[in-house]
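Thread: Modeling a multi-component assembly for a lab meeting

Hi all, long-time lurker, first post. My supervisor asked me to bring a structural picture of a complex we are working on to next week's group meeting, and I have zero experience with this. I have the sequence lines for every component (310 residues in total). Could someone generate the structure of the whole assembly? Inputs are pasted exactly as I received them:
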Amino acid sequence: MIKKWIFSLSNTKQMSVEHNMYIEHWVNFSNHLAQLDNATHSVNFSNQLAQLDNAKHWVNSKFDNSWEASGDILKSVVSSENPSIGKEYANLTLGYSRTTTSSGSIEKYLEVLAQQHCEPDDTDLTLPEIGQKLLPFILPRKLRAAVAGDLAEDFRDYATQWGRPYALRWLWWEIGGLCIRRFGPSAVITAVVMWFRQKFGC
Amino acid sequence: MGRNTLREFEQAVLLAILRLGQNAYGVPIRHDLSERLGRAISVGAIYTALERLEGKGFVSSWTGGATAERGGRAKRFYRIEAPGRRALDAARTTTRSLWADLPQGALV
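Re: Modeling a multi-component assembly
Sure thing. I ran the full set together rather than chain by chain. Output:
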């Protein structure tokens, strides 16, 4: 009984912390939007601001559905006429979703949605660690720094322009090509088959 | 294929190096060629051609400075050498002679 009560108390406390963070997030965002609104004097934007304000009240009154509501609002903001506001909001949402401890499907969906529209942060622009570790094995010593640097430079450009998933696909395609040039197609195919056998036991 | 002759892609790489001048390293060479040839060129293809050209003595390379967006890795710059210029000139002469004396409307 006591155990149950302690669990319920800690759970309530956690929810309360999340709720406060959520409200703080909305207040910051609304203030930010208000400043932008003064600067732009856009009628459409004012309408959207009013909708957001209504949504904020609705979210505060129904905390349980806050993530769904946030997803709907995010979609409406990022598809608005002002892409910079969409990116700003996506950044805020992503920042918020990364601070929460919960990891349900709606939260994941929201994080992915925000990632698609936000300005990438610096960690999204660097080569993945596994790629960096793999490159020394497939590049000749003389060209190692030059090729790895070129890949890092292009990866950064592509991640900024088209997002990290596109940049990652491009990077693995290039690494695959470098492997084939270095070791030959048969060696690469053999390595992939062996990896599959080891991984899935077939 | 003789040691002093150029393949089509090698020719394109040499011309890109000439165009880019002081800024001829992997990334701009790749972008220049992708744009002009109208297809994606892989990093591996560029460096394979550059290695081959360097082996033939057509280009020389040196290591430049490192930048933050490259994760602190140095650039490798390329410069075309006299044998490379001669090979390009010979390739141009050959192409011109191949195109010469075609009958009127031969391509239509």
